[in-house]
Design a protein that fits this description.
This is aminocyclopropanecarboxylate oxidase. It catalyses: 1-aminocyclopropane-1-carboxylate + L-ascorbate + O2 = ethene + L-dehydroascorbate + hydrogen cyanide + CO2 + 2 H2O. The chain has 8 helices and 13 strands. It has 319 residues and is of the alpha+beta class. β1, α1 and β2 form a beta-alpha-beta unit.
């Protein structure tokens, strides 16, 4: 098992190195919950444009607001650890099932159009990755996409964040430790200012900033569907004293009414042939997650199990 952070060259999937590349993805999913993609098919030009617009928008529209928030809360002078706040400046874009890219205030039209184009590329990449995961798991092609589909298709959105320089990074986290609730997360992060860390074997490990790469991590829903074969991993952002870190995280999640449950084939293959996870409606999980994001995920799964006994979800049709 490799101890360095896994970097996957997607270009190799079209070559004689396909088998070892698939093996690398499998190892990353089973042992890390994270990997970094290069040659992912999204052009450097588009990534540079997204980055330039995002950084420009932050400077013009958000930086001053963030400074005012810090001043109003007296955060420069904190002496004790802050555990109910993140040192980040963010806005959200929704893409699926319905886009709000043209409704979000303060964005230049060119920026809106670029983000729309970027989201389309990321959506295709997410679906491509889900099929690669299906292949590694021995599930039929399209299984994960169907599992996420619900009645209106997947939910897909982007959290655009900037982590400004922080005077007391030892007392205030950029983003507190958590696992992601959803499906598969695609992150375009700053290649100069680091800060993202994941928890592996009890140690916090840096996710290395690499130019033009896309970092992938797995959310709670993939842990449930794979019956624990793949795990969602706790991660956090450490604020830095100098430099503003850009982070654009796109979440390809199940539709709100999608019913999530372990894939029957994977339960049959499990050594103890045991169902470890509950069956639930994704929206119900999200309602629970909203209040418990920065706590351990296991009690969330337990709470869904308790709900399951009271709600008969009925048979699931996979069409």
């Amino acid at each position: 098992m490799e101890s360095t952070f896994p970097v996957v060259d997607m270009g190799l999937l079209q070559t004689e190195k396909r088998v070892e590349t698939m093996e690398k993805i499998k190892d990353a999913c089973e042992n890390w919950g994270f990997f970094e993609l290069v040659n992912h098919g999204i052009s450097n030009e588009l990534l540079d444009t997204v980055e330039n617009f995002t950084k420009g928008h932050y400077k013009k529209c958000m930086e001053q607001r963030f400074k005012e928030m810090v001043a109003s809360k007296g955060l420069e002078a904190v002496q004790t650890e802050i555990d109910d706040l993140d040192w980040e400046s963010t806005f959200f874009l929704k893409h699926l099932p319905v886009s709000n890219v043209y409704e979000v205030p303060d964005l230049e039209d060119k920026y809106r159009n670029v983000m729309k184009e970027f989201a389309l590329k990321l959506e295709k990449l997410a679906e491509n990755l889900l099929d690669l995961l299906c292949e590694n798991l021995g599930l039929e092609q399209g299984y994960l996409k169907k599992a996420f589909y619900g009645s209106k298709g997947p939910t897909f959105g982007t959290k655009v964040s900037n982590y400004p320089p922080c005077p007391k990074p030892e007392l205030i986290k950029g983003l507190r430790a958590h696992t992601d609730a959803g499906g598969i997360i695609l992150l375009f992060q700053d290649d100069k200012v680091s800060g993202l860390q994941l928890l592996k074997d009890g140690n916090w490990i840096d996710v290395p900033p690499m130019k033009h790469s896309i970092v992938i991590n797995l959310g709670d829903q993939l842990e449930v569907i794979t019956n624990g074969k793949y795990k969602s991993i706790e991660h956090r952002v450490i604020a830095q004293q100098d430099g503003t870190r850009m982070s654009i995280a796109s979440f390809y999640n199940p539709g709100s009414d999608a019913v999530i449950f372990p894939a029957p084939e994977l339960i049959e293959k499990a050594e103890e042939n045991k169902l470890k996870y509950p069956k639930f409606v994704f929206e119900d999980y999200m309602k629970l997650y909203a209040g418990l994001k920065f706590q351990a995920k296991e009690p969330r799964f337990e709470a869904m199990k308790d709900m399951e006994t009271t709600v008969n979800l009925g048979p699931i049709e996979i069409v």
